[in-house]
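Query structure, 661 C-alpha cells:
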C-alpha cells in the first residue's frame, strides 16, 4: 500500500499545496478561513502522522534552518523542530507558498510565516487548539521579555495563543490582547495553586508604576468575542508599585474569562474606564495580595463575576487594603438608557487577617454621564472582614463625589465576622435609590446597620429573611419605603425618623425602640416598652402627692395604628395632692384625631379599689397622645378625676389607635 504522504503528493501535487499556501498568504479572508478550517487540518494530520518517516517529511532544526530552505524545487512541507533550537518549541509543520510572506513586508514573523531563501514563504499550520507562544521564540525563564512574541502571536490572526505551564513564567512588560483574540493556558495540577505559581500557565510582569500589565482593548469598536482561560498573572517585585494593575479591560464586547488568577498588584483587576455597554463574563476569578483594590469598576460596564476567591489565606495578603471593589467614574461616558448591571455571584471574599477598609466602595467620581447602574452581590461568603484600613470603613460606603446609586441587591450572603464598620456608611451626598437585602447571615460580632436616608430615596427597599446580631438602626426619609419582614436574632431594632412607608412584620428581635413617624404598619412581635405618666388636672396638671408605679408596652398594628398596654398601681396619697381630671401621657406614638384615625377605646382589664364609679369605665385616647378613663354619668360621658382614685387603686388597660401620625 502506498505511503499516506505519497498519496497526498499524488493526489494534490506539490504545486497544489503551494497554491493553497498562497491562498493563506494572499487570498481573501473568507477563503483563508475555509482553507484553515477544512484543508489544512487534513494536511497537518497527514504530515504529523508520517513525521517519523524522515524519507518522506523533511525537517528543519530551527527557524534559521527553515529560512535557509528554498520553496522552488523544495519539499511541499517542512516540519520545524524548534524556534532557536530543536525542542525549545513544539514541532510545527510549514507549507510551502509560492508567494512572498504577507507579514512585515515579506519578512514574516518567525512563527506564523517564515521567509524562504528564494523570497517566498513558509506558512505555519497550527493545531486546531491554537498556537504555543514558544513558536514565536518566547522563553519561560522569568527574565527574558516575551512581549514581542505575544504581540506577534496575536497579530497572526484567528488563532488561540497557548501559554504552557512553566516553572519561572513568561516575562512581559505591557501586553495588549486585541479584541476578539484568545489567550489560553493549561489546567493547573492539583496542589500548585498559590504555591509559588510554578506549574501554572503564568505571566510574570515587569515592575510597573501607574501602568497595566495585561490589557484587553478594542480600538475599532469590534464586537468579536474574546477568550481568556486558565492564565495566572503575577506582579513583580513582591511589594507592587503604586498604580500597578494586573489585568484591565477597557473596551469591547462579549469577552469570556475563565480561571484567571491575578496576584501581587496595587490593583489586581480593573474594568474600564469605558463607555456604557461593554460586557465581560468572568468565571472563577482568583486574586490576592492586592495592595489597594482587588477590583476597580470604572465607568458603566456590564461585568458579571461568577465564582472564585478574592484574598489569600490569613497572613498571605497585604494588611489594610482599601476595598474589594471600588466603583468609580474617571472619564466622560456614554449617556445610555440603563440600567447596566454588575454582578458578583458565588465569591469567597477573604482579605486575610489585615482586612479591608470598606468592602464595596463608590468614590472618586470625576467623569460625567453614564447609564444607571445596578449592583448585585449574591451567594457569597465574607471572611475576616475586620475593617482596619485607613480609608472609609463599612460594608458599603461612598464619598461625596457620588450623587446616586441606582440599586443594590444583596442575596444569600454570609460572613464570619460582624460588620464593625456598619452595613451602610454612605456619604450624605449619595442617594441610594433602592436596596434589596435578603437571606443574609452574620456572626454575632458587633453587627450593625446605620441607614441614614434622605428625601431622595424614592424606591421600595426590602430587608427580609436575614439573621443578624447586635443593633439594627434605621433612620428613615419622608419619601422612603422600607419593608422589614421575617428577620431573626436581631439584638435590638431601632426605628426612627419620618417615613413615606414602613412595614415591620414578623421580626424576632431582642428589643425594639420605635420612634418612627409616617405611614407605618406592623404585625407579629414588635412591641416596645413605655412608661405611663399619671397627671391630675388635665394635660397641664401633675401627680403631686400621689405615689405610684407604672409600666407598659406599645405595639404597631397591621392597619397602620397602634396599641397601648398600661399598668398603674397607686401606693399612697398625701394631703394636698393634685386634683382634677385623670390622664395618662408618655405614649411613644401619636394618634391621628381626624377621619379614619379616630382614636379607639377599650374596657380596662383591671380596675380595683376605685371610688364613686356610677357606670362601666372605658380607656380612650381623646387627644393625639393622651389616654383618659371615662364613665357615663347623668350629664353624659365624663373623665374620671382624683375623686375616683384611692391610695391603693390599680388599673390595667389596653387602648388602640386606628391610625398613627
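Result returned for the query:
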Amino acid at each position: 500500500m502506498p505511503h499516506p504522504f505519497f498519496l497526498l503528493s499524488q493526489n494534490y501535487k506539490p504545486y497544489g499545496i503551494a497554491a493553497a499556501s498562497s491562498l493563506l498568504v494572499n487570498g481573501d479572508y473568507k477563503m483563508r478561513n475555509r482553507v484553515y478550517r477544512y484543508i489544512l487540518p487534513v494536511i497537518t494530520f497527514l504530515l504529523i502522522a508520517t513525521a517519523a518517516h524522515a524519507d518522506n517529511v523533511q525537517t528543519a532544526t530551527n527557524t534559521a534552518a527553515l529560512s535557509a530552505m528554498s520553496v522552488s524545487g523544495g519539499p511541499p512541507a517542512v516540519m520545524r523542530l524548534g524556534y532557536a533550537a530543536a525542542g525549545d518549541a513544539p514541532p510545527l509543520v510549514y507549507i510551502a507558498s509560492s508567494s512572498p510572506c504577507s507579514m512585515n513586508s515579506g519578512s514574516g514573523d518567525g512563527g506564523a510565516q517564515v521567509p524562504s531563501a528564494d523570497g517566498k514563504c513558509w506558512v505555519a499550520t497550527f493545531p486546531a487548539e491554537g498556537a504555543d507562544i514558544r513558536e514565536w521564540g518566547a522563553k519561560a525563564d522569568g527574565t527574558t521579555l516575551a512581549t514581542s512574541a505575544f504581540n506577534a502571536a496575536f497579530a497572526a490572526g484567528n488563532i488561540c495563543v497557548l501559554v504552557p505551564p512553566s516553572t519561572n513564567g513568561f516575562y512581559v512588560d505591557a501586553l495588549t490582547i486585541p479584541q476578539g483574540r484568545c489567550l489560553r493556558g493549561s489546567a493547573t495540577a492539583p496542589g500548585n495553586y498559590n504555591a509559588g505559581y510554578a506549574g501554572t500557565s503564568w505571566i510574570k510582569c515587569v515592575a510597573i508604576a501607574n501602568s497595566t500589565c495585561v490589557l484587553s482593548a478594542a480600538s475599532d469598536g469590534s464586537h468579536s468575542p474574546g477568550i481568556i482561560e486558565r492564565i495566572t498573572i503575577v506582579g513583580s517585585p513582591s511589594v507592587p508599585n503604586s498604580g500597578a494593575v494586573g489585568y484591565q479591560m477597557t473596551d469591547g464586547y462579549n469577552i469570556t474569562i475563565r480561571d484567571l488568577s491575578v496576584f501581587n498588584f496595587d490593583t489586581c483587576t480593573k474594568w474600564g474606564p469605558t463607555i456604557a455597554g461593554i460586557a465581560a463574563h468572568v468565571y472563577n476569578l482568583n486574586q490576592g495580595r492586592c495592595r489597594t483594590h482587588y477590583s476597580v469598576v470604572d465607568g458603566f460596564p456590564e461585568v458579571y463575576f461568577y465564582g472564585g476567591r478574592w484574598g489569600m489565606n490569613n497572613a498571605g495578603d497585604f494588611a489594610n487594603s482599601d476595598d474589594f471593589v471600588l466603583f468609580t467614574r474617571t472619564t466622560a461616558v456614554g449617556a445610555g438608557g440603563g440600567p447596566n448591571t454588575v454582578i458578583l455571584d458565588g465569591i469567597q471574599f477573604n482579605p486575610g487577617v489585615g482586612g479591608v477598609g470598606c468592602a464595596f466602595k463608590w468614590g472618586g467620581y470625576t467623569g460625567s454621564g453614564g447609564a444607571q447602574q445596578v449592583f448585585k452581590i449574591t451567594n457569597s461568603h465574607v471572611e475576616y472582614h475586620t475593617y482596619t484600613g485607613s480609608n472609609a470603613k463599612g460594608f458599603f460606603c461612598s464619598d461625596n463625589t457620588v450623587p446616586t446609586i441606582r440599586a443594590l441587591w444583596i442575596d444569600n450572603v454570609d460572613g464570619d465576622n460582624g460588620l464593625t464598620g456598619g452595613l451602610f456608611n454612605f456619604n450624605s451626598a449619595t442617594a441610594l435609590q433602592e436596596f434589596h437585602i435578603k437571606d443574609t447571615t452574620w456572626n454575632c460580632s458587633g453587627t450593625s446597620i446605620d441607614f441614614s436616608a434622605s428625601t431622595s430615596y424614592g424606591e421600595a427597599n426590602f430587608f427580609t429573611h436575614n439573621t443578624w446580631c447586635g443593633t439594627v438602626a434605621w433612620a428613615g426619609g419622608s419619601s422612603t419605603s422600607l419593608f422589614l419582614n421575617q428577620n431573626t436574632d436581631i439584638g435590638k431594632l431601632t426605628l426612627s425618623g419620618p417615613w413615606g412607608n414602613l412595614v415591620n412584620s414578623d421580626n424576632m428581635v431582642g428589643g425594639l425602640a420605635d420612634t418612627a413617624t409616617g405611614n407605618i404598619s406592623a404585625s407579629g412581635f414588635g412591641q416596645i416598652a413605655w412608661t405611663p405618666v399619671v397627671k391630675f388636672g388635665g394635660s397641664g396638671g401633675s401627680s403631686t402627692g400621689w405615689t405610684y408605679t407604672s409600666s407598659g408596652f406599645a405595639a404597631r398594628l397591621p392597619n397602620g395604628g397602634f396599641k397601648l398596654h398600661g399598668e398603674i398601681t397607686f401606693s399612697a396619697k398625701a394631703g394636698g395632692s393634685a386634683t382634677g381630671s385623670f390622664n395618662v401621657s408618655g405614649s411613644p406614638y401619636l394618634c391621628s384625631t381626624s377621619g379614619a384615625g379616630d382614636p379607639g377605646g377599650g374596657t380596662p382589664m383591671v380596675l380595683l379599689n376605685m371610688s364613686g364609679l356610677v357606670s362601666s369605665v372605658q380607656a380612650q385616647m381623646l387627644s393625639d397622645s393622651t389616654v383618659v378613663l371615662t364613665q357615663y354619668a347623668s350629664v353624659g360621658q365624663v373623665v374620671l378625676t382624683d375623686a375616683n382614685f384611692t391610695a391603693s387603686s390599680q388599673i390595667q388597660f389596653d387602648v388602640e389607635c386606628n391610625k398613627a401620625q
